[in-house]
Amino acid sequence: MALRHEIDDGIGVLTLNRPEVMNAVNRALLTELHGVLQAWRFDRTVRAIVVTGAGDKAFSAGADLKERATLQPDEVRQFLTLIRDTFALVEALPQPVIAALNGLALGGGLEFALACDVRLAAESAAMGLTETALGIIPGAGGTQRLPRLIGPGRAKEMIFTARRVGAREAEAWGLVNRVVPDADLRAAAIAMAQQMAANAPVALAQAKFAVQHGLGVDLASGLAIEGKAYEVCTPTADRIEALTAFREKRKPVFTGA
Ligand code: COA
Question: Residue 12 forms beta bridges with which residues?
């Protein structure tokens, strides 16, 4: 299995599982990933998602370059369309997605993490967009999502030099939210996912929608998007449950209704 996926107590965990090739993404892995995300998108038992890599060396070393060498140009185009669609799907999921970067995240590996909502990095992790060193450019969102996250100057530096950035530098740049000791990474990602999963699913989905769709539009349009997203929360049972729980001095129990 190129991809391990399990759901435990409301948290979906995806593990890129080709450690012998640094979890490089081939067509089989990408197809499995797309399938699981399509299923989880509509699965109300999945409240938050953690993505990580098998082994202790890599989150993912990007596109499988050995497979790439065997592909015809049209097959490369097909791969790129699928990887772009898959990462766009990550961004469009109603659930929050946390990338737990357990080692190297290069090329498409980093682009996957960029499409996630939050990035945690192990101390030993490093990341880079190496494509220009391979005669190509980041093709799964890297030229667009990286500058939006860390600004155009730093993004261009990373893309033009193809160099790797260590976890601490990535944290200082806002490329990752937090650095944790290697041994604590998985637990830290699960703990954060649980904290998110305890909140109201419709509210999480609408907050994600508002942030995502508000980026890149003018403030007035962004505030209008926020207003509409809030409206989706207003008629929910979970909103009433939160108010009732507050009155009764207990924790709310959200159902996603
Ligand atoms: N695609 C396919 N296989 C890959 C891979 C990739 N992107 N990255 C690593 N591997 C494979 C290696 O070929 C090797 O397999 P082998 O033993 O059968 O030859 C195995 O993973 C271990 O990698 P190796 O290069 O021996 O380890 P390393 O620690 O010396 O270097 C990397 C690791 C990731 C720095 C190096 O393999 C590399 O630069 N890979 C390419 C990364 C990249 O540029 N990705 C962007 C693609 S757009």
Answer: 7, 49
The finding on whether 66 has its CB within 6 A of some atom of ligand 1 is yes
173: nearest Cα among 163, 185, 182: 163
Which residue, of 197, 214, 234, is where some domain finishes?
Answer: 197
**Span 152-171, pLDDT tens digits:** 999 999 999 999 999 999 99
Of the residues 107, 108, 141, 142, only one is catalytic, namely: 108
Can you say whether the dihedral through the CA atoms of 197, 208, 100, 174 is positive or negative? negative
Tally of domains within the chain: 2
Together in a domain, 11 and 96: yes
Q: What is the pLDDT of residues 52-101, one digit of tens each?
A: 999 999 999 999 999 999 999 999 999 999 999 999 999 999 999 999 99
Specify the pTM. 0.98
Domain range for 165: 3-197
